[in-house]
Amino acid sequence: MAGVANSERMELIVTADQFYNLVTPITDVHELNWYGLEPLGLLGDLGPSQLANLIMVCEQNNEFHIISYCQNLHAVNRPIQDAAFFRLAKGDKNPYLVFNPWADPLAPLIDEDIVAKLGCELHEIYRRLKG
To answer: pLDDT tens digit string along 3-49?
Structure first.
């Protein structure tokens, strides 16, 4: 898990597994049809034309919320108007949860583990690789 905060936005970046386990998207096409939604595929993707219906479903059922999938492949746990597609979810409603495939929240920890296993400082690693 990693956090990003600046004047424009705040994000809690998690791995794909963590994101989907926390937010619990509804992928059952029959269940989505029962709520009056028409998914685009087998995973429960809802196009931008479905956003108004999706908001109405969420207002009628407090247990649901919207996941937005942006053009840059970010999955954001809140509605975003210009998203590529949406999903209905029934898990954690934290609006700051984000899955960003371009940023690995564990990257600093992995680097620290590698340095620890080598038993030396970064400048020593550079020297070993160079020489």
So the answer is: 555 445 677 788 888 899 999 999 999 999 999 999 988 889 999 99
The residue whose two tokens read 């954690």 is 92
CA dist 72 and 22 (Å) reads 21
Map out the domains of the chain as residue ranges: 2-100, 103-131
Question: What residues have CB less than 8 Å from 19, skipping those under 6 apart?
Answer: 75, 77, 97, 98, 99
In this structure, are residues 77 and 67 in contact, taking their beta carbons and an 8 Å threshold? yes
Upper half-sphere CA count for residue 75 (Cβ side, 13 Å): 20
pTM beyond 0.85, yes or no: no
